[in-house]
Write a structure and sequence with these properties.
The protein contains 15 helices and eleven strands. The protein is an alpha/beta fold.
Amino acid sequence: MPKIGEIALPDFPLLLAPMEDVSDPPFRALCKEQGADVVYTEFISSEGLIRNASKSMIKLDIYQKERPVGIQIFGAELDSMLEAVDIVEQTGPDIIDINFGCPVKKVVCKNAGAGILRDIPLMVKLTEEIVKRTNIPVTVKTRLGWDSDSIRIVEVAERLQDVGIKAISIHGRTRVQMYKGEADWHPIAQVKNNPRMQIPVFGNGDVSTPEAAKRMRDDFGLDGAMIGRASIGNPWFFAEVKHFLQTGNHLKPVDMNERVEAARRHLQMAIDWKGEKLAVFETRRHYTNYFKGIPNFKDLRMKMVSSDSSEEVFEALEEARRQFADHDFTVTAV
């Protein structure tokens, strides 16, 4: 069974990917209940942390019920990253993860995230110094390379392992690809099959069905799957994948009552954590998947995603429960 440092994990663990404005404490709690083995925070700017920016500091909130939990940081300036590590340590995460994979322009232009894939020596040096700075296990999330002509992920993963990281998660696209095209898991398998690699190698990208997770495990031999977009508005995805891996059968799709209850709890936890305005705004992206596949649902969905009032959203959720209580999800499962 894979381990991240001394953290024991089950065979082929499922990890909730760090996603901006998605993997916050309310959503992490829902995914944890459904079987996520490790959850990660939204990525946090090292510059924001050292400047005590409220948007960055609130992302440090972690809770006992979600352990093991990793806090992910990004940046390209060594001093700022080391100071950020000191701040993160005080919150007591189980893992500190370095984001070397975010493809967003505003991150990349500062040589952070996937931008650092253009400077592998800096990537390795930053990682080495962060590992030296903390006793908490350090992991890395990255991509195959900057572009198709610069894929050196086998070498990069080996060098990062050699400076002390305890696991690596690899998205099967380059930065240039962003999220376009299909993720290529073959180079990730090459990392795993490198006889020098001793740390867990987790795959990321296009794990959108239980069958895909099974292929990642059985055909590519990876140690686990990091799940991102497939979980948005669908925390049950973790339970579905685990059931399929164990039995070869699909779980019965969750019914309308379960969907409404999850969406209602999600919004209420978000309000309790970050206030009504942000909660209403940031949970909007989940409603499409919470209620995916329901005919004639457009008006209610529009109310959920356009309202600035939590009261109106709660009313729309109850209306969805009343109108579609008998909807059969067997054909249109998320």
